[in-house]
Each structure stands twice: as C-alpha cells, then as structure tokens.
Design goal:
With about 250 residues, the protein is an alpha+beta fold. It is built from six helices and eleven strands. The strands form two sheets. A six-stranded antiparallel β-sheet has the order 1-6-2-3-4-5. Strands 7-11-10-9-8 form a five-stranded antiparallel β-sheet.
C-alpha cells in the first residue's frame, strides 16, 4: 500500500505539470468514490476551470462537501472541468488563505503543492527561444546523467565518438486532430543542452550546462518555441526539476 501511495503521489505531481483536467463526474469517480485516492482528494487544492482558465479553487472535505479559500461551502455542477491548482494561478492572498485553512484543519498535503517554488519567464525573455538560467553551470558528468535520468529525462542521440550533447523529455498528455484532420500529440518537449559526454560516461569529468529549449512534441528538431508561448506550468515545473538536478 505504501508503494502504491508513493506512486500515486508521483503521478499526481506529473498531472500538476501537464495541467490535466477531468469532468466533475470523472473527478468524483476517481478521487471521491475511490478509497485509495480519497486521501488525495482531501489533502490537495483543486480548481474549477473554464477554457483552461482557473475560475475558483476549492477543497474537498471528509463530510462530502466542498469549500473555497474563504471556507464557504460551494456546489459542483456536472459540466465543470476540474484540475489540480498550480500555485502560479493563485494570488498571494489566496495562497495564504489556503495554507491557513489547511493548518486549521491539521491537514498535511501529500506532496508540496502550495509551497512549491514557482518560476516565471522574465518579461525581457518572452521573445527568446533559449532559456539561459543554467548556462555555464559546471557539474560532473556522472552526477548530471544520474540526476537527469532519475527525473525522467533521456539522453540525446549519440554523435561522433559516441558523445551526446543534450537531455530530452517528451511529455505527451493525449492526441487531437489538427486543422487538416491529422492526429497529433498534445503536450510539450523540453531539451537541455550541455558540453557533452561519452554515452557510457566511464571517466568522471566536469561538463558545462548550456541552454534549455521547449517545443511541441511533433515539431521539427530546433523548431523551438518562444519562452513566452510555453505553458507557464510546464516551464515552472521543468525549471524546478533542473534546479534540483543541477543544484543551481
């Protein structure tokens, strides 16, 4: 059971990253009526969304009711779209209100949702395609490979002499049809470039981290997005992962 709960925590953090939404009916079936997921329903802050935008946040109580950050009871309708709230979407006042409410009811969140660090694209960088937060950071090749792999990134294609120069993660949340009727992937791809190391990394040596890029999963290589067009959640969560991996 402990292993299953741990796996669900990781899954829900991934859901937070990819901005997954459910219908109210599907959400209740998964989190309210499922005994295994019931603890997550109570311990996390949820949002009601319309066209992808947060309209209001709420918490599910053990008595079956729903309350907002002011501790006022609210009702859910079946047409609502529900998802995990990211702290990027809350004002400081709303965050503090939720934290106070959780503290009052002695509820410990199953993972760090409200207090997690957030990262936003600076206004002057929104038209750039390269994120340079980690540029020129030095780290040993073994440490970088181990931490990036553990965080869900994979090695780029080996090139001359068996060296690779990037780590990539593909995060696919589903499929949809484009205007031409072609089925395409929904999600994001992130790519971190570095000075390179041998695919087997037998010798421990320092490598230098370079730029971070984002693109759509079906986009051509190097068809990178402007940072201002990247989903804010995804950008924040990727940077958070890399901060932990690179210790910057």
């Amino acid at each position: 059971m402990k292993t299953v709960i741990g796996a669900q925590k990781q899954r829900l953090e991934y859901v937070l990253m990819l901005d997954r939404k459910w219908s109210a009916e599907a959400w209740k079936a998964l989190f309210v009526k499922n005994p295994l997921m019931h603890c997550f329903a109570i311990g996390l802050i949820w949002g009601i969304y319309e066209n992808g935008c947060l309209k209001t946040s709420f918490r599910y109580l053990d008595d079956g009711s729903f309350t907002n950050s002011d501790d006022d009871e609210i009702e859910l309708s079946e047409v609502m779209q529900i998802g995990l709230v990211h702290p990027l979407e809350l004002t400081e006042h709303e965050k503090e209100a939720w934290l106070e409410q959780l503290d009052d009811y002695e509820i410990i969140q199953p993972f760090d949702q409200l207090k997690r660090k957030v990262y936003k694209v600076a206004e002057i960088d929104k038209n750039k395609t390269a994120c340079e937060i980690f540029k020129n950071t030095e780290i040993t090749n073994t440490t970088l490979v181990n931490r990036m792999t553990k965080a869900g990134w994979y090695k780029g294609q080996a090139q001359d002499a068996g060296f690779f120069y990037e780590f990539i993660r593909n995060d696919i949340s589903g499929k949809e049809k484009d205007p031409d009727g072609k089925l395409v992937n929904i999600g994001m791809t992130a790519e971190l470039k570095f000075s390179g190391t041998y695919i087997g990394y037998y010798e421990i040596e320092d490598v230098t981290v370079e730029e971070l890029y984002f693109r759509l999963p079906d986009a051509a290589y190097n068809d990178n997005m402007k940072l201002g067009d990247v989903n804010p959640r995804y950008y924040s969560e990727v940077v958070l992962q890399l901060k932990k991996a690179i210790n910057k």
